[in-house]
Amino acid sequence: MISFKQLPIEAKAAVAAGVVFFSMMLSRSYLAEKLDFRMRRWLLRLQMALFANTLMLMGSLHVWRSTVTTFTRSSAASSFCFMLWKIAVFMFLALAHSSFFTLLFLVAEEPYFFSLAAYTCLGAYIILIFFLFTLGSVEQAYKFLAGRGAKAGTGNKNRTALKPVLAVLLTVVLTVVGLLNASQPPTVNSVEIPVHKLPSTMNNLKVVLLSDIHLGPTVGKTKLAMIVKMVKALKPDITVIVGDLSDAEAKIIRPAVEPLGELDSPLGTYFVTGNHEYYTSDVSNWFELLKSFNIQPLHNENVKIVSPKSTSDWFCLAGVDDIEADVLRYSGHGMDLKKALRGCSSEHAIVLLAHQPIAAKWALQERPDINLILSGHTHGGQIFPLNAGAYLLNPFFVGLYQVGQNTFVYVSPGTMYYGIPMRLGSRAEITEIILRSP
């Protein structure tokens, strides 16, 4: 029987990842009610950072072997330039691995340069792994189809050397493109949506949708102030924030949140939690902070949005807690649609705020009379090649969907980005939704 010491390092990393994952499940199941919020917050974040790093270790070994070990037998291996290259690859991998720990130590009003560099390396790491794997698969397929067997001639050696070079070049180009794309202000996307049973006096009501701002290691006060300025220029009747506003505790990042106090939509500004609010383990303090800025959290509850032209005309705006609260066993929280829609009948239009598209699907299965659901969470995949995974894992990916005759779902691609300051195959968006009365 093979002992742990005899296992290859990749297998050891996989075992370590399994152990960390098991500890996460154990903490969620048996320790959630026994630990105070502060201890739970640190334990959860530490476990997530360790889990991500143990998984990444397998990829990092492959990167090192592909970009460094492959060239150790070449004539350039003893050169000073090759030594610099090894140092660069090591620093790149070290920064990528350290990105997850910045949530524990480097969150402030504005991002630290180290955090931006670390998360940029993480984004480049994901792209590089994809191209190394893809090019390696193409190489193996070529060998198989060409019937070359296992013999390695000069041509094969050249192709083996070409693979990491091409992967690195593609990664550098896409990283620069992604950084430039994400550095641009969010695009304003105007969408007209017919809402069944919306009073005629509320025709053309303007709702501005924000989602996935992710205040934290790489998004700070300056970017939020820019978003608020753009929202105010649109002069919305209602502003809604559908989760993942922040990745940090309210007290730590409070100065960065202050621009939200300038939102002044006449019919109110509303907020529902996303999964990352529960990762902070600080939801109650976030609710209090948002209320101080006249932003109303909808904690499985609803409000009547009354027409400015007629007090007898209104529709029901409801919001549910994110489904991650149930997974984390977050006390007093969890998606409760019945509670959220209490008093909302099909006689009036119903608009629901639910962070995750899967929650939108569940809500429609239970209450098909909901007329409009506004969600986020997917980021439109944020960066290639994660787009494909986000598309496959969510029933609604991005944009407007019609479900049945009188129901629509709109999924925001996100107003900023999570961690990695890059966007590839997606664009940050502030959504201007014009409600139309049929």
Folded structure, characterized:
With 438 residues, the chain is an alpha/beta fold. The protein folds into 2 domains: 4-182, no CATH class; 186-436, Metallo-dependent phosphatases (Purple Acid Phosphatase, chain A, domain 2, 4-Layer Sandwich), CATH 3.60.21.10. It is 47% helix and 14% strand. It contains 14 helices and 12 strands. The protein has helices at 9-31, 37-67, 80-98, 102-105, 113-146, 154-183, 221-234, 250-257, 275-279, 283-292, 324-327, 337-340, 357-366, 386-393, and strands at 187-194, 205-210, 238-242, 269-272, 295-297, 301-306, 314-319, 350-353, 372-375, 399-402, 408-411, 429-436. The strands form 2 sheets. It has a 6-stranded mixed β-sheet. A 6-stranded mixed β-sheet has the order 6-7-8-9-11-10. Strand 8 (350-353), helix 13 (357-366) and strand 9 form a beta-alpha-beta unit. Helix 2 (37-67) crosses helix 5 (113-146) and helix 3 packs across helix 5 (113-146). The model has no long low-confidence stretch (mean pLDDT 87).
Mean pLDDT: 87
Proportion of helical residues: 40-55%
Order of helices and strands: HHHHHHEEHEHEHHEEEHHEHEHEEE
Q: How many distinct helices?
A: 14
Q: What top-tier CATH class of the largest domain fits best?
A: Alpha Beta
For this structure, what is the CATH homologous superfamily of the largest domain?
Answer: Metallo-dependent phosphatases
Distance between the termini: 71 Å
- Count of domain modules: 2
Beta content comes to 5-15%
Q: What's the alpha carbon Rg, rounded to whole Å? A: 24 Å
What would you say the CATH architecture of the largest domain is?
Answer: 4-Layer Sandwich
